[in-house]
Every structure is written in C-alpha cells, then in structure tokens.
Design a protein that fits this description.
Blueprint (H helix, E strand, L loop, with lengths): L19 H13 L7 E4 L3 H15 L7 E4 L2 H10 L12 E6 L3 E2 L5 E2 L6 H9 L1 E9 L14 E5 L4 H11 L6 E4 L16 E6 L7 H10 L3 E4 L1 E2 L5 E6 L2 E5 L1
Parallel strand pairs: 1-2, 1-3, 3-6, 6-12
Antiparallel strand pairs: 4-5, 5-11, 7-9, 7-10, 8-9, 12-13
Bound molecules: ribulose-5-phosphate.
The site of ribulose-5-phosphate (5RP) has 18 residues, from helix 2 and helix 4.
C-alpha cells in the first residue's frame, strides 16, 4: 500500500511587486557576475546600465573586484564612474575591451538591437564593437519581434550641417516602409538635442518592417552627413532579460 502524501497548505507569501527599475537592476546585477578582476570593462549608458556601473563600484569597494578599468560610453557614464572611483581609460589606450555591459531600447530574437534613445549610440557602438563580449541587459518590455517594428524611434546621429537635408534623404530611403523622421529636440529648451560628439539626432519611425537590416544599415551609412545609426546588428553576444517571472539568459 502506498503511503499517503501529506501536503501542508502553502505558507502565505507576501506579494512583491517589482517595478521596471527593479527589473533593470536585477538584469544589471546578473551581468556584473561576469566581470572579473583585471578586466577592461565597457560601461554602458542609460538607466539599466547605471545599475551595472553602481554594482561594479560596490564590488570594488568590497574588495571583490580589483584592477578594473572602465571604458565609458558617454559623458554621463564617465561622470558617474568618476564619482564612484572607477579607474577609466579609452579605446586609444585600450583598443580591446574584455566585456561591455549596456542596455537597449529594442532587442529582437536574433539579438539585434535598437539603441540610442538616450542619445549615446555612437560611443556605445564604438566601445561595444571593440568588446570581446557584449552583454545586453533589459527588462522584458524591450523585447520585440523585429527591430524598428515597435513604431518607436530608431535614432540616427547626423552632423548639424543641413540636418534637414539629411532627414529628407533618410526618410526617402525607407519610403517603402512608411518611414517618417524628426529632429530630436531638448524638452527644456525646444532646441536641437546635441550629442556628446556635437551632433544632432534624427529619430526615424517605421510603419512597416524595413526588411533586410544589414542592407538598411548600409544604405544609411552611405549617405554623406550621417555619422551612425542605432541598429546594433550582430554585436551582442548575450542577453539578460529580467521579467516578473524571473531571469532569462540567451547566448
Ligand atoms: C542610450 C541607450 C540606452 O542603452 C537605451 O536607451 C536603454 O536605456 P534604458 O536602460 O534607460 O532603458 O542606448 O543611448
């Protein structure tokens, strides 16, 4: 005769509501587990990456991480890292980065990204394309079926000279995808938002899928006056997604 299995009622569990910022922090902390002493680390920009930089500094203070060199991807991250005492360098002195950790605005199933809604896409792409590993950290709201399909902005950094001409040329490249574009403006001043590199940002919006992303990238970069775009294709080596159900890691 089989023994009767007694199951006691589950203990009442206090319900915890995780905010979007909690999820960003969870993803960031998980990624920082991959940072080891002696590494050159690409420090991302944005509210998610900020948690990673805080965590690296915390582990350094606790003596758990030593001899870290950070390569910041924006002036803002540079300031944060300096205030936390993280030693910094740049790609001129450290052309190979061991590991970069950064957030994203959109991530598709192939780990293609849209970045730059925070305006730092150029330095981010320079640092992350020089990294042996690039871990993307997001909360689950950033997952999309294909990049550019969210109807939210795909940023393009352009030189200020005749930016309106560049805007029109960009939009006409993607007329087939119902593209519209606008100059990004600073909410407080109403003037053009200026990047860390002294450039402007054109935000492109697509009504339909833009198709082959590599082809779209080539077309954009071939236009004179364009500095860089926010599609990060084939750069991410892993993805950490924090959701209310838990953490997912994709490599
Ligand atoms: C900045 C970026 C950011 O990584 C991206 O905008 C995500 O930001 P957040 O972590 O605040 O959601 O690309 O240029």
């Amino acid at each position: 005769e089989l023994p009767t299995l007694m199951v006691s009622p589950a203990a009442p569990c206090p319900s915890i509501t995780l905010t979007q910022d909690d999820l960003k922090k969870i993803a960031a902390y998980k990624a920082v587990e991959h940072v080891k002493s002696g590494m050159v680390v690409g420090l991302g920009t944005g509210s998610t990456a900020k948690h990673a930089v805080d965590r690296i500094a915390e582990l350094m203070r606790q003596g758990k991480l030593k001899d870290i060199i950070g390569i910041p991807t924006s002036k803002k991250t540079h300031e944060q890292a300096v205030s936390l005492g993280i030693p910094l360098s740049d790609l001129d002195s450290h052309p190979v980065v061991d590991l970069a950790i950064d957030g994203a605005d959109e991530v598709d199933p192939g780990l293609n990204l849209v970045k730059g809604r925070g305006g730092s896409l150029l330095r981010e792409k320079m640092v992350e394309s020089a990294s042996k590993k690039f871990i993307v950290i997001v909360d689950e709201s950033k997952l999309v079926d294909y990049v550019g399909g969210s109807r939210l902005a795909m940023p393009v950094e352009v030189i200020p000279f005749c930016w309106n001409h560049s805007l029109k040329r960009l939009v006409s490249l993607f007329a087939y995808a119902g593209c519209v574009g606008e100059l990004r403006k600073c909410a407080e001043t109403g003037k053009a938002s200026v990047t860390d590199n002294g450039n402007y940002i054109i935000d492109l919006y697509f009504e339909k899928d833009m198709g082959d992303l590599n082809k779209a990238s080539d077309l954009i970069l071939r236009l004179p006056g364009i500095v860089e775009h926010g599609m990060f294709l084939g750069l991410a080596t892993s993805l950490i997604v924090a959701g209310v159900e838990g953490i997912t890691v994709k490599t």
